[in-house]
Amino acid sequence: MHALAARRHPELIGVVTTCLSETIRDDVDRILRKIDLPVKLVPMHTPSYVGSHVTGYDNAVKALVTHLAEQTGPNCKINIAVGLLDPGDIRELKNMLNQMRVKAIILTDITGAFDAPLILPRPPFPDGGTTLGWAPLLVIWIGIGEMLPIVLIFLCSFFPVLYNTITGIRSVDSDVIEAARTIGASDRKILTTILLPLAVPNIFTGLRLEAGWNYEREMAQK
Q: Are strands 104-107 and 78-81 parallel, antiparallel or unpaired?
C-alpha cells in the first residue's frame, strides 16, 4: 500500500478480496483501518465463488457508495443505477436524458474510462532510482563491456527495491511480532520467519516494476 501510494499518488485505493481471504475470514476492514496513509482505502469483498462477475461488480460499487457517499439535501436529480452495463448503452442513456433535459446521477458512469481513446504519450513513470546520468561515468570507470549494463541496472534497481522491502517490513502487523516475542522468538527468528516472508509481496512488486524500467534503461544506455 505504501509503495503504491508513494509511486502513483492515488486519491483512493480499492482493496479487492478474493477466495482465500474470504475463506479464512481475514478481517480486511480492520487491517485497512490500521494502515496510516493519506489515501482513502475501500475494502471490496468480492469472493469469486459467490455468484458471478456481475455480483463482484455490484459488491464493489456498493462498497464505494457505503464508504464515500455523504448525506446531502435535495439536488433535483434522479438516481439511475445501471449496474454492469455496456459503455455504449450508458452513453445512449445519457443522450436520451439530455434530450429530455433531465438531470441525473448515473451509478456507475464508465463511459469516460472504458469507452475512451488511447491517451498518448503514456503517463510517465514516477521518479526514482539512479538516473541515466551515471552511464557516462560508468563508461569511464568500468569501460564498455558486459559489466557496464550489469552495474548500471544494479545501481538503478537497488534503492527502489530496498524501499519496497523496508515498506513491506514496516507494514507487518505489530501484534504478530509481539505474539512471537511472547513465545520466546529471537530477533533473528522474527526476521527470518515473520518479517521477510510477509514482506515478499512488496519485494516482488519492486522487482517486477524495476524489471520493466530496467529494460528501458538498458535501451537508453545502448
A: parallel
Provide the residue range defining the domain that includes 90.
72-115
The pTM for the full model equals 0.49
Asked, for residue 192, whether it belongs to a domain, the answer is: yes
Chain Cα centroid distance, residue 12: 10
Residue 137 is placed in which grid cell? 561515468
Evaluate whether residue 108 is within a structural domain: yes
Q: How long is the chain?
A: 222
Distance, CA of 194 to CA of 180 (rounded, Å):
9
CA distance 174 to 36: 13
Nearest CA to 149 among 163, 162, 132? Answer: 132
Domain count, the chain: 3
Handedness of CA 167, 169, 173, 178 (dihedral sign): negative
Q: Quote the cell numbers at residue 81.
A: 443505477
Cα-trace Rg, the chain: 24
My answer on whether 157 and 195 are in the same domain is yes
What are 63-115's pLDDT values in tens digits?
988 888 888 888 888 888 888 888 888 888 889 999 999 998 888 888 877 76
